[in-house]
Every structure is written in structure tokens, then in C-alpha cells.
Amino acid sequence: MTTPQIPRTPPSSSRRRLAAALHRRPRAQLAGLLAAPLGWFLVAYLGSLALFLVTSLWRVDSFSGNLVREPTLDNYVQIGTQEVFRTIAFRTIRMATLVTITTVVIAFPIAFTMARLAPARLRGAMVVSILLPLWSGYLVKVYAWRLILSQGGVLNWALQPVGLQGPGYGEVAVWLVETYLWLPYMIIPIYAALERIPGSLLEASADLGGRAGQTFRRVILPLALPAVVAGSIFTFSLTLGDYITPTLVSNTRFIGNVVYDFVGVAGNQPLAAAFAMVPVTVMVVYLLVARRAGAFEAL
């Protein structure tokens, strides 16, 4: 018994004309594919930043506490002239820089081992071990470190036999926890870049008499620099904006803590928006400098 064939409905003439027009115009196809995500990016991301900037130009009336929607630079003047704001800003930038440098120093040998030295089975296990902490919640990891760094925590228990003691809660604790949290974001880009470096380049460097240090400085590091910059964007920006880790493992105030206090406790949203523009400005300047230095050309 034969199965009856269902006739296929030919596409309408309008659909055929549209398909033919898109086939002749590849840029129109690309524009159609990117219209929705770019529209969302413009509205949700750039639009929110624009509203952020507008809010920072408002002020709160000191007598009534009402929001005055008149453009003014008083919030920026207050941030620039008061010592406490400058101190907190410099402290946050210094911590972000320290965390970024630390993650680069730790991530490079790990990524190089994964990409160049480890066998395939061990490489897979190392990749899983790097990605595994990302599957757990952010707060879970911070609270775990809070327990580790506490007075009766595992770190003090391990160091007690040799007469040492952990750093406890403070800026050092923030540095340790932030480095742990953002380290995978540095390892993965560097690993991907090192894995793409042809082995023939390393062999050519060795044949020309280049030692290990020379090969690293003149071959490996320039090729991996875009990946380092990409990873540093994550580590630097995430540290600049983090306020939960400093709250849980220290009493030191960073930009995120002050912004949170102004929004929730003081109720001064314009001043909070103006102070939050500091890390945004720092990241914009950093990206422009990195682009001018040619760090993105090989991406």
C-alpha cells in the first residue's frame, strides 16, 4: 500500500521576492540578524547608562529631601573636592589593579600548562576544575571564604602548628577572595590564546637560539597579550563594582559599598549615580588606552 504524497505548498511570491532580495544583499541579511540584539543593547545597556548619567546631574534638596530634577554638577564637585571620596576611589582602583595583576601572574603558568604541557586527558580535567567553581553561586563562594578566614577557620587551624596566623578580615581578605572569584575569567582567555599559537613558532625560536625566557618575551607574550587584556577587562571591572565581598570579609569601604549606602540608607540617588560614574569612566579610559596600544588588533 503506497502512502499518499502530501503536496508541498509553494512559497508565496512576496516571500520569494524577499528571499531573493536578501540573497543579493548580504549586508541586509546581517542587519536583520543583528537588529534585535543590537536594539536590546542600545535600549537596555546604553539607555540605562544614559539615564544613569542624567540622574547624576540631579540633586536632593537639603531642606525637604525631595529630588530636584535640574542639571547641576554639584555631585561631581562634591566627589572631587572631599577627601573621603577620593580615598575610597583610589582604594578601589588600587584593589582592582592588584587583583588583576595577581590573576595574570597565577593564570599564565596554569594556562600554559593546560595548553602546551598537559596531555589531553589531564587537560580536560584541568579545564573542568577551572570551570567548576563557576557553577556554584557567588554568595556561596564568598561565605565559604568568610568561614575559611574567620578566627576559628580552616586557615588559622592549618597555620597554627607553624606559629602563623591568617590575615583575618580586611583588605588582604578582599584581595584573596576577589582573586579567587575572578581567576577563571583570566585563565580561560589566556588558555584559548596559547592553544592557538602554532608549535612551529616555538620550534623556530628554539632553532634560532632563543632561550625559554626570550621565546616567552618575544613570541608567546605578544601573541597572548590580547587575551590578557580581555581577561583583565573582566577582573578589573568586576572588582571595581563589587560590594558584597568587601561587606562580608572586611569593614573597608569601596565604591560599591558607598553607592549602596547612598541608594538604600542615605536616599541620595543622584550622588550615588555620580560616584558610580567613577568606575565607568575608569573602564572607558582603560579600553581606549588598550585599543590605542593595539591590544585588540589580534582579537
Give an overview in words:
The model has no long low-confidence stretch (mean pLDDT 83). The chain has a domain of 197 residues: MetI-like (MetI-like fold, Orthogonal Bundle), CATH 1.10.3720.10. 22% of the residues are buried. Helix 2 packs across helix 13. It has 299 residues and is mostly helical. The longest helix has 35 residues. The chain is built from 13 helices and 2 strands, in the order H-H-E-E-H-H-H-H-H-H-H-H-H-H-H. A two-stranded antiparallel sheet has the order 1-2.
Labels describing this entry:
single chain; 299 residues; mainly alpha; MetI-like fold; two-stranded antiparallel sheet; 13 helices
User: What's the helix count?
Assistant: 13
Looking at CATH, the homologous superfamily of one domain is: MetI-like
Give the SSE order as H and E letters.
HHEEHHHHHHHHHHH
Largest sheet: 2 strands, antiparallel
Q: Ends: how far apart?
A: 60 Å
Q: List the strand order in the largest sheet.
A: 1-2
Short synopsis of the structure:
By secondary structure, this protein is an all-alpha fold.
List the helices and strands and how they pair.
Blueprint: H1 13-24, H2 26-56, E1 59-60, E2 67-68, H3 74-81, H4 83-117, H5 120-131, H6 138-149, H7 154-159, H8 171-196, H9 199-207, H10 212-241, H11 244-249, H12 255-266, H13 269-292
Antiparallel strand pairs: 1-2
Helix pairs in contact: 2-13, 3-4, 4-8, 4-10, 8-10, 9-10, 10-13, 12-13
